[in-house]
Task: inverse folding
């Protein structure tokens, strides 16, 4: 079957034609051999799995549900809550009555909760949590596949420390074939972020690697689509910021809150869950509103303290509306949370901070032409070239905002692990953005006042 451009860029941007023949046994056991020894406590708490979706493909959703049903010990599974965030029946008629008909055959533990109006991921998850009954809450995107033995390693970490929040190791389900490859022998990565408050994956440090390939690892942030925590701790910690809209930024908000307010966030390699990543983001925003920027402004105002200025240097928007955050600031005070400087120093020391030890911060401008060095948004494209460009100086930061570091690097603050690189060591050579390597050479720059 040929794949047209329209196929690839439909409402779900999945290769859906491949999924219709996939059954719940498709993925198999993806665990590392060291994870198959069992030995879990016999009194682990029961779990509720909460799926939230808007206009999801039925086959993809069923694959998610069936993988939980078939690969979760029945005695640990309290219920599966499937939250329909006001899907449009005209576009996806099978996600209404046909889904209800399928769920009726699943034995009573699967329940569909339908929201009357579009509420977004944050409110949908809060509704699902309130409707569920388990002692341990698992929040999943609706396009996943659980491997065998996925739940016990997560619950066991929380069983021993109720203020630990856990994420499974997220494997990639290929969007073009729907295949779930086995990646158990690969070293996991952990979560970080850019100063634009965008999540990114970063490598483990040497101390973490020494713990072994199956050891749970501390992570500064979570991707947000797949995680679990104690029900009691979810509510004690303040659930979600319910004044955030639709989607975006909620993963970093809860990550900062976990660490700064006395908790711990981990990735558990022995728990493996495949995730179907999109070709592009299919999330629709009512009225075309930019909820991500508004949400991250709320996040910056509540949690970043003086560091929020770096966010505004990158994203702009200072002074724009972000709603009332007084309740969230009160929550931070009530929980006696630490400051963001503590988080940077103790949880995410890998973060590049444009502090006083750097030589300069701002734009690189040619005063004659008024052209500025500009990343031209190429740092947002994981697959495209990273050639450096120039553009009219606009004075708004963002793609023209850089650090001249104490190591004589020119660092793109918006993606603060990329440095200006001259790989050819030659005058007139093409310059590119390349991951900072801290070894000088082709990333060593000097500034002359004359």
Result:
């Amino acid at each position: 079957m040929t794949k047209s451009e329209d196929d690839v860029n439909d409402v779900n941007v999945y290769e859906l034609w491949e999924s219709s023949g996939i059954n719940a046994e498709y993925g198999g056991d993806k665990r590392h051999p060291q994870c198959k020894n069992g030995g879990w406590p016999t009194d682990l708490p029961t779990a509720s799995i909460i799926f939230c979706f808007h206009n999801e493909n039925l086959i993809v959703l069923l694959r998610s549900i069936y993988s939980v049903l078939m690969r979760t010990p029945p005695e640990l599974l309290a219920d599966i809550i499937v939250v329909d965030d006001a899907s449009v029946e005209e576009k996806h008629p099978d996600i209404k009555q046909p889904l209800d008909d399928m769920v009726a055959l699943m034995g009573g533990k699967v329940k569909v909760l339908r929201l009357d109006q579009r509420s977004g991921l944050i409110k949908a998850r809060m509704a699902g949590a309130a409707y569920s009954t388990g002692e341990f809450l698992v929040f999943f995107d609706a396009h996943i596949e659980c491997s065998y033995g996925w739940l016990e390693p997560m619950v066991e970490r929380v069983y021993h420390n109720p203020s630990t929040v856990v994420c499974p190791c997220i494997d990639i389900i290929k969007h073009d074939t729907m295949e779930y490859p086995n990646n158990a022998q690969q070293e996991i990565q952990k979560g970080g972020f850019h100063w634009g408050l965008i999540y990114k994956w970063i490598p483990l440090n040497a101390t973490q690697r020494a713990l072994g390939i199956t050891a749970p690892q501390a992570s500064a942030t979570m991707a947000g689509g797949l995680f679990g925590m104690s029900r009691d701790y979810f509510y004690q910690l303040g659930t979600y910021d319910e004044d955030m809209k639709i989607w975006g930024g909620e993963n970093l908000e809860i990550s900062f809150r976990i660490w700064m307010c006395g908790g711990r966030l981990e990735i558990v390699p022995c728990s493996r869950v495949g995730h179907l990543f999109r070709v592009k983001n299919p999330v629709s925003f009512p009225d075309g509103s930019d909820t991500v920027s508004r949400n991250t402004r709320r996040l910056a105002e509540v949690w970043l303290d003086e560091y929020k200025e770096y966010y505004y240097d990158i994203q702009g928007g200072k002074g724009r509306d972000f709603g009332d955050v007084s309740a969230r600031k009160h929550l931070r005070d009530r929980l006696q949370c630490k400051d963001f400087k503590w988080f940077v120093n103790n949880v995410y020391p890998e973060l590049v901070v444009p502090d006083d030890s750097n030589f300069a911060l701002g734009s690189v401008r040619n005063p004659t032409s008024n052209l500025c060095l500009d990343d031209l948004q190429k740092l947002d494209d994981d697959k495209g070239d990273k050639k450096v460009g120039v553009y009219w100086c606009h004075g708004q930061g963002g793609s023209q905002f850089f650090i001249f570091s104490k190591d004589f690097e020119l660092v793109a603050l918006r993606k603060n692990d990329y440095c200006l690189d001259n790989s050819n060591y030659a005058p007139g050579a093409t310059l590119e953005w390349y991951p900072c390597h801290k070894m000088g050479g082709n990333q060593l720059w000097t500034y002359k006042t004359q």
Remarks:
- The first strand starts at residue 47 and ends at 53.
- The two ends are 63 Å apart (CA to CA).
- Residues 58-70 form the longest helix (13 residues).
